[in-house]
Every structure is written in structure tokens, then in C-alpha cells.
Design goal:
The chain is an alpha+beta fold. The protein has a single domain, classed as Ribonuclease Z/Hydroxyacylglutathione hydrolase-like (Metallo-beta-lactamase, Chain A), CATH 3.60.15. 20% of the residues lie in helices and 27% in strands. The protein contains six helices and 19 strands. The mean pLDDT is 97.
Length: 277
């Protein structure tokens, strides 16, 4: 029995004798099945290949980024958020080995893991078991869990304080249970928001965007984006980190609000006109 991992999205599934016919994450319209077909690997095969290495980097006091080189799956970054007595892993990456575990334990380990949405579930159970950590997933995304575990806590409602100064906010959008993390102690107590790609920083690091499907370029409705902006208006933060190590260093809250306004105006035909005359 093996816990197979989809090579396209990097999500691990429940153990089986043979690889599944399809990945339930990739076969849904927010993701995609590779043009070369569905392919699988295992964590054991990844480790034995000696191809991959996790890079753990200090971003600011109390915050480390964790990314795999070369990139695997979707290629997202996870973040280790350090509180006074509690460490939280925000989102997951697929690759985990003994070196990664040892290095993180030197930083105090992981007490809990929180996920923004299903595309980053990756090998979350492997991480939870390695650190004896609880996994927090919003109950609205329960159906997308591909490897069940008694480590998983399906939380409900709009907000959850996982630990002092670390608050999860369900804001919807990309998925119904899409969640962001408010870290009140970050950026010298001015507040940091970690968003996965529920809110995605764009190329110039001055604006953000919101999508139903990034892979297939399907936008969100204007009303949904307005709802996200309204929820984030209630959260205090000055810096924002997304899933691909893009950072808005300053005035992030204001930039999110302006970006939402621009997005809605674009959908409503107010921001620009490009139709043929």
C-alpha cells in the first residue's frame, strides 16, 4: 500500500495498492490534468531520487518561508509563523524529509498547521504526523480532503483564533472555505496577512488579484470580490505574503482595497473599454 502523490498538484491521497485513475483535485475546473496525462509518485520516491531540497529562509523576525528546489507540483511556499509559545505552519508543500524536520525542530517545531485551500493540502498528513501537530481546515472544504486523518480539525464560522495573535479568517472566493491568516505580531506588531493565493500579489508587487481559477483564467464575480474586500477591511495588516513568495512590504491593506475596486470596475466595464467600434 502506498500514499500516491499527484505530480501535477503535489497532493497526496489515501493509501492504495495501485495509483488512482485520476486526481480529484486536478480533474476539477480550478486545476487541470497535465497535457501529458495523469502521473503519480510517492514521497519515498522523491526522497530516494535525491533531487529535491527544502530551502528554509528567515523573512522577518518570527517568520520563515519554506520552499522546495527544484519546484514541485504547483510550487507554492509554506510559512512557519513563530509565536511566543506556539508555532504555526501556514499552508503545506509536498516535500518533507529528515533534514527539513530537524531544521524546523531547531526553530521550535510545529504545533499546528492551517490551510488556505485544497490546492495546498499536499502531504499535510505527513507534516502533521512528523510534528504531532493538528491540522486546521475550514469545514466548507471538507470534501476536498484526499487523505483523512484524526489530526484534522474542521473548523466552522468566519474566524478562529488558533493561538494568541494568530487568527484564521474564512473569506471565500477561490474556494468556499478559502482562508487567510492574520498574524497580529508580524511586522513589529503592525500586522501581517498570509493569503495563499486567495489574494494573489501581481508582478509589480503594488496590486493584488482574485481568481476562481488561476490555471484556467476564470475570474470571480464582482460581488464575491466586494465581499472579500469587506471582510479584509476589518483585519489590521500592513504587510502581505502570498503563496508564491510575493510580498507587499508596506500599505498592504490599502493596496488590497484599491485592487478590489479596480477588479470590480474591470468586470463591470467601468475601468476600461476595448470593444471594437
Amino acid at each position: 500500500m502506498k500514499n500516491f502523490i499527484c505530480i501535477t498538484c503535489g497532493v497526496q491521497v489515501e493509501s492504495s495498492m495501485a495509483a488512482p485513475e485520476k486526481c480529484s483535485i486536478c480533474s476539477e475546473e480550478r486545476q487541470y490534468v497535465s497535457s501529458t496525462g495523469q502521473t503519480w509518485t510517492t514521497l519515498e520516491e522523491m526522497i530516494q531520487s535525491e533531487i529535491y531540497k527544502n530551502m528554509i529562509s528567515l523573512e522577518e523576525e518570527g517568520l520563515f518561508s519554506i520552499a522546495t528546489s527544484p519546484s514541485f507540483g504547483i510550487g507554492q511556499t509554506a510559512y512557519l509563523v513563530q509565536g511566543k509559545t506556539f508555532n504555526l505552519l501556514w499552508d503545506c508543500i509536498t516535500y518533507i524529509n529528515s533534514e527539513t524536520i530537524a531544521e524546523i525542530k531547531e526553530q521550535g517545531g510545529i504545533d499546528a498547521i492551517a490551510l488556505s485551500h485544497p490546492h495546498y493540502y499536499s502531504t499535510q498528513v505527513e507534516w502533521a504526523e512528523a510534528f504531532d501537530a493538528l491540522l486546521y481546515i475550514h469545514e466548507d472544504d471538507k470534501e476536498w480532503v484526499t487523505r483523512p486523518s484524526d489530526k484534522i480539525i474542521f473548523w466552522s464560522g468566519e474566524s478562529l483564533e488558533v493561538a494568541e495573535e494568530m487568527i484564521l479568517h474564512r473569506i471565500g472566493g477561490h474556494f468556499k472555505g478559502a482562508t487567510v491568516l492574520e498574524w497580529k505580531e508580524g511586522e513589529a506588531q503592525q500586522g501581517v496577512l498570509l493569503t495563499g493565493d486567495i489574494v494573489r500579489v501581481v508582478a509589480d508587487r503594488q496590486w493584488v488579484s482574485f481568481m476562481y481559477s488561476y490555471a484556467n483564467f476564470i475570474p470571480l464575480p464582482a460581488s464575491t470580490v466586494q465581499g472579500i474586500a469587506s471582510r479584509l477591511e476589518e483585519v489590521n495588516f500592513t504587510r502581505l505574503y502570498d503563496a508564491f513568495h510575493r510580498i507587499i512590504e508596506n500599505d498592504a491593506k490599502e493596496r488590497v482595497q484599491k485592487s478590489a475596486e479596480r477588479y470590480v470596475d474591470a468586470l463591470n466595464g467601468v475601468h476600461f473599454r476595448t470593444e471594437a467600434l
